[in-house]
């Protein structure tokens, strides 16, 4: 299979690195060659976070570029907008309808753009929006927002559901398995 | 069995499999996870050293006494460790000796883009460059073998992208390697001029032998192909080259110093045009040009500045634009990193900004105090420079009767790393400045590593806690004061008083990092909208929990840590603990 790529973006603290680990593991179990890339360090202090996963028969480069991503999984609206140029023309973007103010907005130096979802829908043919925050809140723990995002991606990518569940069970803390499975199912069955 | 490992995890695994005995490091992005992962293997002694020079010297000593050793550092760390590096090159290695240098093309978390392969050449030691996690793992064992066979430290040069990318790795079991018995060798290990002159001859011979090794090193390999041009690439750039031109002939260089000259001559003679794909300096390119080979292109085509990727490589070589992509006509606010809610540094920088002091800063989370809205830093150079730069400014300002006051700001781990010697210099030379040690009880920026002030070692053992107050008092500083960062009144009073004092003072700010697990949330504050006058004083703290909406401040309750500093700056007492 030709190489495909997934880009996860959001804000430090949203569980993006764990989500990209889970996705990479699922692809490994499905016998793809997988490379995953992320940047640690300063960005973790509330900055923008990006992690990319590339998979196929043989993957050389671990990173993706402009106009070359098949799936974007955006955990926050502004970060979806920031990374939109990475999407392929026929790529799919999944956006969490959730807002986290960056510092220039919080300090009233800049404005958080209005109507981001509408802007994206006007620009990109394949847009899926999801309210992972409300769904996670409904389940009783906003931390499972990332598993909800994974569940929605799993519904879009054609891979066996059992493997997703199996990897999630292995990757999340034992006491959080039940709620993460519920979160995955809820998004997978949307 | 195959596992998905980052380059750093793979290096740790490689160290384990190759029977490593001792590992040392000072944390620094992108190298930190190497030692964090080595610490999971109980067979290996590992430590957070106080700085990179110490780390390299401890590793050197362990190699003298027959242990297989690895020391890891970020690229600028090797500057700190450069002194022992050059001597240890002459002395050589008894137990296998690997130095991992994690360079940072693109400066994701660094102050420069230095290419540490130059250190290998300059110190006359071999340089290996893995291109994925499998090689990162395998090259540790290979480097240890080369080190023992050729009596040399070996530089394993990685980059951020290699360190923090994950790819598939085949794991093996550990092979125990017995330590070598220590035998005194005056001529080898006492690097007096008379001995060093003899050793230098050995070093030059060693380089010739290593060049011969490089010719037959299986990871320097030619991959046949077709097309108008050929490629030479090393490290992760090899992956970008393969991704861009999978069918082109390519010479993959895994030992970039010394280079396999005959192999390169043979390869380059077959093609009209050859591109060297490497990040940062034209390290391989210049060496090839120095061989008199002239059909080589490199930095005339592919950028020297910043990180490469497959798109840049392809675009540069084909000289074509292919950037069809979606774009929107929206002004997207940046999302820079910020000091956390409850960060103990905030009140310090708020105070320093308020009194408009000249602030010499240092390396750590607190460098973020330089950014808006705190804007409270004039300089940041390298580990420990806050103290010494501050003293230098004091000297120059006083020479021109400039009354402005200089305050040096340094973290606890950075103080242990390189601050102490600078402070001794200030004492010795009758300095009058003010040094603030932000003692947040952890090496925070790199993700919470222990240090000599935390009471724990990397191996999880209890350790004596270095008492910073007792230490600086024992040096003879009369004015040493502790402050509680969350008590803004005290913080301001003490800083102001000590800055005005015509003698050297040290202020130790004692609040621990708000992200420490042992440091739970204190309370949740809220803003009473009827009392908020929209003066933005609290916004000026840059706390991510506070936003300004419709001319009023609001606090996000899930983010608020309860430090109360915003409540203390509020002129109308509009901010109080929720529900009180």
TrEMBL record, chain A:
One of its GO terms (molecular function) is oxidoreductase activity, acting on the aldehyde or oxo group of donors. Keywords: Oxidoreductase, Pyruvate. The keyword Methyltransferase does not apply. The keyword Oxidoreductase applies. Residues 12-188 form the Pyruvate/ketoisovalerate oxidoreductase catalytic domain. This is Indolepyruvate oxidoreductase subunit beta. It comes from candidate division TA06 bacterium. The lineage of its organism: Bacteria, Bacteria division TA06.
TrEMBL record, chain B:
It is an enzyme of class 1 (oxidoreductase). Its cofactor is [4Fe-4S] cluster. InterPro entries: 4Fe4S_Fe-S-bd, 4Fe4S_Fe_S_CS, HACL1-like, IorA, Pyrv_Fd/Flavodoxin_OxRdtase_N, THDP-binding, TPP_enzyme_TPP-bd, Transketo_C/PFOR_II. Keywords: 4Fe-4S, Electron transport, Iron, Iron-sulfur, Metal-binding, Oxidoreductase, Pyruvate, Transport. Heterodimer of the IorA and IorB subunits. PANTHER family: 2-HYDROXYACYL-COA LYASE (PTHR43710), INDOLEPYRUVATE FERREDOXIN OXIDOREDUCTASE ALPHA SUBUNIT (PTHR43710:SF5). NCBIfam families: IOR_alpha. This is Indolepyruvate oxidoreductase subunit IorA. It comes from candidate division TA06 bacterium.
